[in-house]
UniProtKB/TrEMBL annotation:
GO cellular component: peroxisomal membrane
Alphabetized PANTHER family for the sequence: PEROXIN 11, PEROXISOMAL BIOGENESIS FACTOR 11
Protein name, UniProt field: Peroxisomal biogenesis factor 11
GO terms under biological process: peroxisome fission
Entry superkingdom: Eukaryota
Biological classification of the source: Eukaryota, Fungi, Dikarya, Ascomycota, Saccharomycotina
Localization (cell): Peroxisome membrane
Keywords assigned: Membrane, Peroxisome, Peroxisome biogenesis
């Protein structure tokens, strides 16, 4: 009876559905990858867990998970390229700031994932291993990731400005009593949107610390801080993917 209750529990059904998706597995593996990186980088955890004997095991697990994630993202740039073409076709002849920021954000993400696929081909020995593919290619890939994050931050900042303007306009308007309830709902909706955008800004800033550290532009991982940022953003990604799964009806 207890086993039957557990097997058919809505949370377990939702977990199974989550792990059946490519996105769910990729996000979960990302969390594990950065968790291993954090354990390896943090001196206190090194002492507590006494992982000196298993350093190679942790490093190998981290590397293997990274390769599996590249497989799970295989051909993903195609969907982003499709979105880019649709966005360009809907530009209505005007190149306003919102269009430019969104377009370049998607373009940089597409280039990042495309070059990441080239890294996978190098790992599989499809591409030759030379100075360019081993050293420069990963750096170019990370730069496209960084450019994508910067444009995403600019997009979010522009959205915050727009939302604030709408909120000020609503609060300053002389509204008749019968419309107060409707305007309160609009204000509440705008505040929810603002909260989501602020969360995205935090997300992008944390991911920026990861890529800036990977590019050696700023050393942020002396005690695992960049890896911890990766753990946090991995949780954000899992939470976002989890919330998109409809409640189980089983």
């Amino acid at each position: 009876m207890v086993c039957d209750t557990l097997v058919h529990h809505p949370s377990l059904n939702k977990l199974v559905t989550f792990l059946e998706t490519v996105n769910g597995r990729e996000k979960s593996l990302r969390l594990l990858q950065y968790l291993f990186s954090f354990i390896l980088s943090n001196k206190n955890l090194n002492l507590i867990l006494n992982i000196k004997k298993n350093v190679l095991l942790y490093k190998n697990l981290q590397a293997q998970i990274g390769i599996v994630r590249k497989f799970l993202r295989f051909l993903k740039p195609i969907s982003i390229l499709q979105s880019l073409i649709k966005l360009y076709n809907k530009r209505n002849g005007s190149l306003h700031i919102d269009f430019i920021l969104t377009f370049y954000k998607n373009l940089f993400n597409c280039l990042y994932l495309t070059f990441d696929q080239l890294n996978l081909l190098r790992i599989l020995n499809v591409l030759p291993k030379n100075e360019f593919t081993v050293k420069r290619l990963p750096k170019i890939t990370n730069y496209f990731w960084l450019f994508g994050l910067v444009t995403s931050l600019l997009t979010s900042a522009k959205t915050i400005i727009t939302l604030n303007e709408k909120l000020i306009e609503l609060k300053n308007n002389n509204i008749e009593k019968q419309n107060e309830f409707e305007d309160e709902k609009i204000i509440q909706s705008l505040n929810i949107q603002k909260h989501q955008v602020l969360r995205k800004i935090v997300w992008d800033l944390l991911d920026s610390t990861v890529v800036v550290n990977s590019l050696d532009l700023i050393k942020l991982n002396q005690n695992g801080y960049a890896s911890l940022a990766g753990v946090i953003t991995s949780y954000f990604g899992i939470k976002e993917a989890w919330d998109k799964i409809p409640p189980s009806t089983k």
